[in-house]
Write the C-alpha cells for this entry.
Amino acid sequence: MRECAHELRTFIRNNFLYGSDSPEFAFSDDDSLLERGIIDSTGILELIAFLEARYSIVIADDELVPDNLDSISRVARFVERKLQPAA
C-alpha cells in the first residue's frame, strides 16, 4: 500500500499542485482531497483514468464514491482491493 500511496501522492502533486512541495499545499494521506480543494470533479475523472491505466483495473460507476476516492489512504486501499484475485 505504501508504494501505491507514494505513486498517488506524486500523481496528485504533479497534476493538481503543479509539482509543488510547498508547505502551503501540504496534506496528509487521510485528508479529504475534495474538502481541501486539491481535486475537483474533473480531477476525479483524471484520477480514475490514471488508476485504470497505471494498475490495469476497471472502475465501475457504482465504485465512484468518496469511500473509495476521497483521500490517498482510501484510494490506496481501494486499489489494493481491486488488485486482489477474485475469491
